[in-house]
Every structure is written in structure tokens, then in C-alpha cells.
Write a structure and sequence with these properties.
Length: 158
Amino acid sequence: MSRLDSMLRRFTAQRDGLNWAASLIKGVEGDALDMGLGNGRTYDHMREIMPERRLWVMDRVLQCHPSCVPPEEDFLQGEAEEGLERLKKIGAKILISHYDFGFGVKEKDVEEAARFSPLIAEIMAPSGVIVSGQPLVGFDAVKGPDHIAPDRYYFYRT
């Protein structure tokens, strides 16, 4: 598979997975979290499909498209540990989150996701949903949409 086809498959899985997850929590109160703002595509989609939710965003630097700059009070700039710790400290309970941190090196990305998993668990609300580009640990894995390959995207409930 070409890198372009792989990227399109990932983007489709990401979008469809987020839409699916948002439908699971419709009508339930709670915040959302996008871990890894990047250029803002996922953030933009999340705010479109869940306009009623507060959407927290974290990343090391703010370098997204100008149309995707989150409100200052919702952007947790810096290292992931600091952002997750801040959410824990303020008592945030996240109902839906998207995990998209990574270096682009599978072994390093899997190791980092495992290291962050307990911190993510501390801020997730009961019955929460996590959509992740990397495998996480300590969560109940669930099957996402049928057309998404199990190794392409990961889905969890808390």
C-alpha cells in the first residue's frame, strides 16, 4: 500500500471513528479532549460534530491552521504530562478523547502511549470513549465501526 493510500485509510478511520464515538455519548454530559493538535484537522472535526461540548486541546506548540486555533482557555500548551496533570487538578472528567501523539516511529509511539495511559485514565469519566491512533493500556478495548481494520485505529471504553 502506498503511503498516500495508508494516510487516506488513517484519516477515514479517524473521522469515522470519531463520528461513531460521538454517537455513543450523545446526550451525556462531559467534556472532550484532543491530544495532539497538530495542524488542527481533528480538532476542527471534533468541534463540528460536538459543538455542545467543551473541547480541550493539548500540544507542545501551537502551529495549527489559523482557522483551527482553539480558545486560549481550552489550549494546554506544553508536555502531555503537564496538560493531563492540569486537567486532573481542575477535576475535569473527559467523556470522549482522541489520542494522536507520536513521533512517527511505531515502537516509540507504542511505548509513549503506554506511559500516558494511566494519566489519561485519571481524567476519563465513567462510560467514556477513547479513539486512538496508538494502542493504549488499562482500558477496555471495544470494536469500533465494522469497516475500520482492528490495527488501523483503536477504540476503548472507560
